[in-house]
Predict the 3D structure of the following.
Amino acid sequence: MGIFELTLIIATLLCSLLAGLVFAFAVVVMPGIATLGDGAFLRAFQVIDRVIQRNQPLFLLVWIGSAIALLASAALGFGQLDGTGRLLMVAAVLLYLLGVQVPTVTINIPLNNTVQAVEIEAMDKTALAAARQAFESRWNTWNSIRTVLAIVVSVLLLVLLLRL
């Protein structure tokens, strides 16, 4: 096994772990906390997000490592892959960067930061409802998009691995 194959295996593992993370948020975490009242919902999200924002090392390894490993795989494999293999790799990289990483940085993280700034104890019921409304639907929509595309990327990488 060469360095390209090893890097591709690592990229596939890390991208799949990330797909699982956003999938878990889509089907367990957000539906679970959605049943809470506005203040409790916002507090729960703050607590969950705070774990991530405190640079939890395993989370950072998966999140940043997945992008680095995927880009490294693409660079290492470009000359070794046939036309279909190159197409699968380019599609995986573009979908992952533009469909998972970019929305995270430009949409989900700013929404997370807005929720982090909410002072729940200082707000009345109307303000809490407004804060939740400004956050929840948009965050869930973009997380669903990230989830679908992250799963597609994992499938593309698995297909690529099977073709080697």
Observations:
- The CA atoms of residues 43 and 120 lie 7 Å apart.
- The radius of gyration is 18 Å.
